[in-house]
Amino acid sequence: MAVEPAANVFLYEEKSLENDVVALELFDPAKHSVPFVKLVQDHPESFQYLAFPLLDHVDDFLTKIYNPIATSDADLLWAIIDKTCPAGDSGTDNMAGVLSLNDTRKELAYTEMGAVVFPAFQRSHVTSNAIGLCLQWLLDPPSKGGLGLRRVMWQANAKNSASRRVAERMGFTLEGILRWHRTFAPNRDCQKAPGVPTAALAARNGTDPKDEAPGRHTAIFSIVWDEWDAKRAVVEAQMARRK
């Protein structure tokens, strides 16, 4: 029996965002699930710094990724669409990746954002415009059509230099490194290298090394409301670049 997609219950209004080159479409399982799973399968290297589950088919995606996001009022998922590329016969050939909000707290006016952009769309206008559109919506005041949040966070595996460069380029400030912040289950061959080794921990604790999942140090970045007016110009400049 096929898994049914859940209905979204996000804390704020769920809306698509777009400009002349990129659209953030609210993730539609009927439209976006199949191409996303295919992209995941074709590009496992895109997840080498993430503890991302293996996806053999769409039901895996719905069960492990989409439905937990959709049924959480703290999370939201968009498909990133490159409007400068043809959609093709499938209507989704221009799907460049996904962008998500996580751990949104209305009482704290806070959220965390993250994105995966697949190789064919990297080093282009896509990443900066997807992130920029989202930041504008999150941090602009309600009088300008935004949510007026106080804080937006970006987390990256401390070893993921590309993600850290993106955050800095888009105006995020590095707040510090959370050491041994997460475990890093090596469920893909390409995920074994980025984990922090735990052989010494196993020897210290007298445990089986196989039972000690690799660790992860996390780089924490943020943009906050009282610097947004200045940093908005930085974001707009990045969005204007086409290379």
Automatic annotation (TrEMBL):
PANTHER family: FAMILY ACETYLTRANSFERASE, PUTATIVE-RELATED, RIBOSOMAL-PROTEIN-SERINE ACETYLTRANSFERASE
Name listed for the protein in its UniProt record: N-acetyltransferase domain-containing protein
Domain of life: Eukaryota
Pfam families: Acetyltransf_3
Domain N-acetyltransferase residues, every copy: 44-173
